[in-house]
From TrEMBL, chains A, B:
Subunit note: Homodimer.
PANTHER family: ALLANTOATE DEIMINASE-RELATED (PTHR32494)
Protein's recorded name: Zn-dependent hydrolase
GO molecular function: hydrolase activity
UniProt cofactor(s): Mn(2+)
Length: 397, 397
């Protein structure tokens, strides 16, 4: 099949224009926002132009279906609260281009998907989690975002597009192209990463409750300050995790909410996010025990109430050997000596889809490893190389 | 003069009903909110009923003026975002009752004030700071609250009540009754605290800026995580301040705002409040140096940008001997052996008024020392004892 690089890049920039914000090529297109819904309506139109049948499930996962059994390509088109133009969008537009090129070449049959809420406004890769059957819609509908809006309420914004359930049995496999979102390929000057496996992730909210009080008249010795509890927990945790982690293990406190969050009041309550990732399920479990024990120790020592939210997350997943080898052969043909096999430190929809069918992934470089930020970018030559590897691998299956 | 305890308590409960919220006797009546403006209109009416002339300055400080030279009594009627029913309100309603009782007794001349924004929506005791001449209205108008609303914008809510400047020269002194907001009187079973001096306060915003990035693909070693910077700063500061503080010194990080505050993103920016209080100006200065040096050290070590907001605060203030002695004699008469001289760990409008005239303060107990919270309360017998001490002291001047 013949990839049309100009057509591919034009679609990528047209999608970027929907929700364009911030500096550089930044976009603000969180799941179910007006910009996200507009982008999905635009994608549906491009799918129809490519001769694909558009179907949308109750979650808002958007499919463009080829006739009969087909290989499924795609990613997601929702963004972080402040995101880049390629995180998810690259995989969706590359899938669209390969489906078009395959159609023009008389085959193979290629379907396209843009999953919903991969960025986790309501959880972790919520759309593909529900589609894969790991989470039922009714339970997911109860999830709320940081502003307290429920998923049930938010997804009404897409009600007009919904056609019904989309049967996974029609797909022979799933391949997702994504930016690396890390520095490895950019540092080594390589163009393609063929993913060996995707690390697992754990994510939960933790709450410390002490005593809200006056910041001038409450002696330090009798305070039950929720921020001090979070700070002590963080310091102890950093020390204790060193004994169990590898250089590729990561853990993050990315969200902190103090109550009442005023400069003259000792904070009575702190809610924060605790997220950790590793390629080894056992290690993720050992980290969870250390996190829970450390939080319990801090709460006990400071006379605070402690509660843990529901544990979200996904197990590490190995890529399908046949699909992965097809990507490796195509990478060597398109970028000889300028590609590598590597794990994915980021979570992807492929992790969920692996419950249903063989999956594989490939990476394009991220300049300076920056992602989940407006500055996220990739050289166009690398974007084109990546879509050519994807097309060549699909043609060879 | 004869204090009417029932009339005093009824007014106190009527004021509480305006903005009543949360549990127990909680109120939500922040400066310039609809509830705050309604409360000031109600107070203006009660002042007129008491034969006082109502005047309101541009800041929204509300005065009820007696004829000719008079002693000024009062406090504030705005509340914390989540406040109690007595913080400020006690001093205003007690002043109103003493003014009424003095009027009925044919003297002395007593005026009443409710200062605006004592709780610092826009700074620190903003209303009395402006009235005392320490801050000009134009500069104060540029201050913004945590939501980004400017004081100039917020005070429009009271524009209809403003009569113009209120001349401090008509007042011979200022006495403020307030709840202790700490555990000392409640623990000792005493009814009255006669304040010796008010501690000084320093308050500033601190900002760390690092690099916002993906929480799965950014190795721990290369992160520039703004929350980690705040946590390390807090731990180092707690250790270092131990060497310069006394048991009555306090320091608080009560407000923390991470950006973008999402669980899957390494926080690129953190803004937090740093507040500290002590009775000794030199110690406040030594603490400031340690705070700035520690923040600079953390920023340098982590490759972060560091910036400090404007330094707000007030110097420690000693109470006027004549007024303080009148309060002490009245306390011994009303609650023999059940009162003490003590410093005020909390900041009060009296600190600002001390620039203009002699000032003194007395405290009523706070049950369990709780304040700046819905649970704040005081036994009615102690409230009545406090207003009787205030009336007796004023009559004796």
């Amino acid at each position: 099949m013949k990839i049309d690089a100009a057509r591919f890049l034009k679609d990528l920039h047209d999608l970027r224009a929907i929700g364009a914000a911030g500096v550089g090529k930044g976009v603000v297109r969180p799941a179910y926002s007006a910009a996200d819904v507009e982008a999905r309506e635009w994608l549906a139109g491009r799918m129809r132009d490519a001769g694909l049948k558009v179907e949308v499930d109750a979650m808002g996962n958007l499919f463009g279906l080829a006739e009969g059994p087909s290989i499924l390509l795609g990613s997601h088109s929702d963004s972080q609260p402040e995101g880049g133009w390629l995180d998810g969008a690259l995989g969706v537009i590359a899938a669209l281009e390969v489906a078009r090129a395959a159609g023009e070449a008389g085959g193979p049959a290629v379907s396209v998907v843009s999953f919903q809420d991969e960025e986790g406004r309501f959880g972790v890769t919520t759309g593909s989690t529900v589609w894969s059957g790991a989470l039922d819609q009714a339970k997911a509908d109860g999830f709320t975002d940081d502003a307290g809006v429920s998923l049930a309420e938010a997804r009404r914004a897409m009600a007009g597009m919904v056609t019904g359930p989309v049967d996974p049995a029609q797909f022979t496999g799933y391949i997702e192209l994504h930016i690396e979102q890390g520095p490895t390929l950019d540092d080594s000057g390589e163009q393609i990463g063929v993913v060996s496996d995707i690390v697992g992730i754990r994510d939960m909210k933790v709450t410390f409750e002490g005593q809200q009080n006056h910041a001038g008249t409450t002696p330090m010795a009798v305070r039950r300050d929720a921020f001090q509890a979070v700070s002590e927990f963080n310091s102890l945790l950093n020390d204790r995790l060193r004994n169990v982690v590898t250089p590729s293990t990561v853990w993050t406190i990315g969200h902190v909410s103090l109550h009442p969050n005023a400069s003259s009041i000792v904070p009575g309550k702190a809610v924060f996010s605790m997220q950790w990732r590793d390629g080894d399920s056992d290690r993720l479990g050992r980290m969870e025990r250390i996190i829970r024990e450390t939080a319990e120790e801090v709460a006990k020592g400071r006379g605070m109430e402690l509660s843990f939210g529901p544990m979200l997350g996904l197990e590490p997943v190995a890529m399908d050997a046949r699909l992965r080898d097809a990507l490796a052969e195509a990478a060597e043909a398109v970028a000889p000596g300028k590609w590598r096999k590597m794990p994915s430190g980021a979570l992807h929809d492929a992790t969920n889809v692996a419950r249903l069918m063989p999956v594989a992934m490939l990476f394009a470089p991220s300049i300076n490893g920056i992602s989940h930020a407006f500055e996220e970018d990739t050289d166009e030559a690398d974007l084109v190389a990546a879509v050519e590897v994807l097309g060549r691998a699909v043609a060879a299956l």
